[in-house]
Structures are given as structure tokens and as C-alpha cells.
Amino acid sequence: xxxxxxxxxxxxxxxxxxxxxxxxxxxxxxxxxxxxxxxxxxxxxxxxxxxxxxxxxxxxxxxxxxxxxxx
Length: 71
Hints:
This protein has three helices and two strands. It has helices at about 15-30, 35-40, 45-60; strands at about 5, 10-15. Strand 1 and strand 2 (about 10-15) form a beta hairpin. Helix 2 crosses helix 3 (about 45-60).
């Protein structure tokens, strides 16, 4: 999907966001857990955006994991 979205002042496609989610899923498969802060530093997103992106991807079955907030 090449739909453009405005994310923190940058135009990104849904495809890019989906690829980010796939990378997050692969990272989880490799190391078992990853912090929101680590993801936010790896990708050009705030912690809040990463949380929302991950929640959405988990609900769609793109990321196979659990988001533990406040841990």
C-alpha cells in the first residue's frame, strides 16, 4: 500500500510502516524481547508512536508478541 501518512512531520507510506513492523517481529524472534526505547532509537519515531504502531501490528497479527507497558 503506497498510501502516504504524515508521521512527526515526515511523509511515510503504509508499506514503510508495515516493513518497520516486520523488522520488529524479526527482532523479537531473534532476541525474545526489545524495549520501546530501543525501537524508538532504531526508527525515527517517538515512544508513543512506537507503542501505537506495535499495538496495531499485534492486533493485525503482523507482530507476534505481547506489549508489556510499565515493565
